[in-house]
Specification:
The chain is mainly α. The protein has a domain at 2-105: Multidrug-efflux Transporter Regulator, Chain: A, Domain 2 (Orthogonal Bundle). It has six helices and five strands. It is elongated, with a radius of gyration of 25 Å. Keywords: Coiled coil, DNA-binding. GO terms for molecular function: DNA binding; DNA-binding transcription factor activity. Residues 77-104 form a coiled coil.
Amino acid sequence: MLSIGDVADQSGVPASALRYYEKEGLLPPAERKGGQRRYSPDILFRIRVIKMAQQAGFQVNEILTLLEGFDSNVPPSERWREMAQKKRMELEEKQRELVLMQEVLDRGLRCTCLSWDECFLNVSLDGTCDRGGEKGADRHPVVFSRRYR
């Protein structure tokens, strides 16, 4: 049996995180001997799975679903595949949002308005300023993007 300190040293996960994982159900409750947590060496493998899932961007509730939220006869490969497909879709949406944010920032960097009032007076329905700089150069966003209107 391993103490919480031993598990922390061997896994690279702080003892406070191990206690949190246990509280959230990611780790099974540790046995107690003399008031101290004692873990089976098998816990190190489960912690490696948790760390891998975190590196893939899974949140605690998603990791719990991955570990415990499937019928026991569903193999880990199918669990991972289902969860990974959902996570990839989320990441693709975030990438689209990031591209839009970069475009809004880049266009805003070309702003030539002298005041917010001036910019707001020239706002078109698509959230861009019609002033655009020299001789109608690029129209640029004001303060909001399509996402926040």
